[in-house]
């Protein structure tokens, strides 16, 4: 995961774990009898029933069957984004992941290029998202989505508001937007589902029924999976044919920049004037930002553009966006090379 992430965590970056709050949550859950409702369950059911007309008894039965999972609370305390870039990169830019992405691209080239043209997103970035999130559908998560969202929405104070909203959305989604019954769905420890690891809110807002069968299935329908990722990018402002990132070389007097997120906010011309030289030719008027990563051989500086920012809408970590970008480049190079084409 995604995250990843999330955005599914894929659009979320976990915050630092707070042991005192977790201990309080665990103490509360341990003190409750096994038959008791989850904390806040009655109000949640009331809200969902009011908004959708669903039967409160059926909603309570669903939630009564969900379990608070200690392993989920443990997992969210160890986000991969806490690692330096030199370690984070090695998770996703492996020969195995690159080769599998090349094979996937070649095997599904016609569908990928059709969807890429439809949504204006280069196919290698769609593939790279699947590669980073679930190793091209091989590892979509083993947690029950309902358990994950109940645990984090009702027992994890640091992110309770976000995850409770995702739990409410899950309970409100129509059957046509889910790969199966709510209590059978599996995914990440954060409740993200499918090959692209979509959170319930992202399923509601961005997932599409590309194969036209009247159902959105992010677990079993490759057209739905690929098009949903592409649509997510398109709806967040992807620039067709636009750059993602380019290496920058600061001089000894380069201005120290206060970069709070990945929003492009300066022109390349301005950044050059401040001491950041591009390694390749770039449009001087292009809007950009600068990201600094701790690489194996010291700091790395990168100009990042609108499409980099869009990837961070999937997972807010700049390292995540850089991993997707570099994996996409490697996949495109391999899939389009003469050597690969003859294999």
CATH topology of the domain at 19-77 and 140-235: Helicase, Ruva Protein, domain 3
Question: Strand order within the widest sheet?
Answer: 4-6-7-3-5
Distance between the termini: 31 Å
> Rg, please?
21 Å
Percent helix: 40-55%
Query: Going by CATH, what is the homologous superfamily of the domain at 19-77 and 140-235?
Result: Bacterial muramidase
Query: Would you state the CATH class of the domain at 19-77 and 140-235?
Result: Mainly Alpha
Q: Indicate the CATH architecture of the domain at 19-77 and 140-235.
A: Orthogonal Bundle
> What can be said about the biggest beta sheet?
5 strands, antiparallel
Tally of individual helices: 16
Tell me how many strands there are.
Answer: 7
The outline comes out as globular
Fraction of residues in β-strands: 5-15%
Overall mean pLDDT score?
90
Structural class: alpha+beta
Runs in which pLDDT lies below 50 for 5 or more consecutive residues are 1-35
Elements, N to C (H/E): HHHHHHHHEHHEHHEEHEEEHHH
Pfam family, one: SLT_2
Domain Transglycosylase SLT: 43-329
Organism: Dyella acidiphila
Signal peptide: 1-36
Write a structural description.
The protein has 343 residues and is an alpha+beta fold. The radius of gyration is 21 Å and the shape is globular. Residues 1-35 have low confidence and may be disordered. 44% of the residues are buried. The protein has helices at residues 19-31, 41-52, 56-64, 70-76, 85-92, 95-107, 109-119, 123-134, 145-154, 160-172, 200-206, 222-235, 268-273, 306-314, 318-335, 338-341, and strands at 143-144, 186-187, 245-250, 266-267, 276-278, 287-295, 298-304. The strands form two sheets. A five-stranded antiparallel β-sheet has the order 4-6-7-3-5. Strands 1-2 form a two-stranded antiparallel ribbon.
